[in-house]
Every structure is written in C-alpha cells, then in structure tokens.
C-alpha cells in the first residue's frame, strides 16, 4: 500500500516534469513577449509558420494528415507560456506529441528554419528570436526519436 502510494507520487511528479518541459515559463523572457506582438502576434506568426511547414518538402509529410488548426493553437499557447505571457499550455508533452513520428535531427532543423523564416517575415527582432530558439533547442531530446 505504502509502496504503491509512493510509486503514484513518483509518476505524478514525472508527469508534472514532462508538462513543464513542454512549455517552461521563463519570467526573464517577459520583455520579449511584446516583441512577438503578444498573443495576437503569435497567432499571426503561427499562420506563416504552418504555411512554411506545408510548403517545405522536408516537413510537409509530417503535417499533411494532422489537425493543423489544433497544432497552431497549441503552439500559440506554448510559445506564449515560454515568453511568460498570460496563457496556459494544455497540450501534450513534447515526448507524447512526437512519439512514433520518427523525427530525425534534420527534420528538427528544417522546422527551426521554417520558424526563423516566419519570424523574419514578422520582423521579430533577432534578440527576441534567439531567446525563444534557445528555449526550443533542448526540446530535440524529446522530439527527435530517429537517427
Ligand atoms: C522545438 C520544436 C518543436 C516544438 C516546440 C513542437 C511543438 C508541438 C506542439 C505544441 C504540438 C501539439 C501537441 C499536442 O498535440 O497537444 C506538436 C505536435 C506535432 N508536431 Fe511538433 N514541435 C516541434 C518539432 C516538431 C518537428 C521537428 C516535427 C516534424 C518535422 C513536428 C511534428 C509534429 C506533428 C506531426 C504534430 C501533431 C501530432 C499529432 O497530432 O498526432 N514537431 N508539436
């Protein structure tokens, strides 16, 4: 009884960690939320980001048959939380969301390029871009599952 209780506690705490890892809020990034144009800016950014992903033959196959409207919504909330905006991320952990997709490091890099292209189009200052990218980069550990 005691053992199963503490096992449950361990699972709860590792779930909480997985959730946090998918959208780590960083108060130090708050100044950059405005550079992204707030939540409205993030919504506009995600339209172009997803358009880039669909126009890119390297990433298109991954997104062709999923609910892109829902993913854009989750991405807005996730980036908003990372930038310490007034949002809550309710999507899956990065490990859960990308499990079984067979994403390689090259696919990950392609997605980052498509994001950078979208951020440039939206005139997001490079410093703000780099602050966000620094938070996304370590997520490769949960997202890249194939050599
Ligand atoms: C730092 C990089 C990435 C971030 C921050 C990210 C973020 C997200 C988020 C927030 C979701 C929605 C989670 C949910 O379902 O609740 C998602 C889903 C998804 N992501 Fe990523 N992602 C990243 C990299 C990638 C890469 C490299 C690919 C493929 C090239 C990819 C393909 C997908 C697909 C196909 C889904 C939908 C899965 C499904 O609905 O079954 N992601 N991602």
From TrEMBL:
Keywords: Heme, Iron, Metal-binding, Signal, Transport
Gene3D superfamilies in alphabetical order: Globins
UniProt KW Membrane keyword: no
Keyword Ligase attributed: no
InterPro entries assigned: Globin-like_sf, Globin/Proto, Hemoglobin_trunc
Organism of derivation: Oleiagrimonas soli
Binding residues for heme: 98
Molecular functions (GO terms): heme binding; metal ion binding; oxygen binding
Name listed for the protein in its UniProt record: Globin
């Amino acid at each position: 009884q005691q053992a199963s209780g503490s096992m449950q506690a361990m699972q709860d705490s590792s779930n909480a960690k997985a959730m946090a890892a998918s959208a780590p809020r960083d108060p130090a990034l708050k100044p950059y939320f405005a550079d992204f144009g707030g939540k409205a800016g993030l919504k506009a950014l995600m339209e172009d980001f997803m358009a880039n992903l669909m126009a890119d033959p390297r990433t298109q196959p991954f997104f062709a048959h999923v609910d892109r409207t829902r993913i854009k919504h989750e991405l807005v909330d996730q980036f908003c939380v990372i930038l310490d905006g007034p949002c809550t991320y309710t999507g899956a952990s990065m490990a859960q969301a990308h499990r079984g997709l067979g994403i390689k490091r090259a696919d990950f890099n392609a997605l980052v390029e498509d994001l950078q292209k979208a951020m440039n189009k939206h005139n997001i200052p490079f410093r703000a871009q780099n602050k966000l990218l620094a938070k996304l980069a370590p997520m490769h550990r949960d997202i890249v599952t194939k050599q």
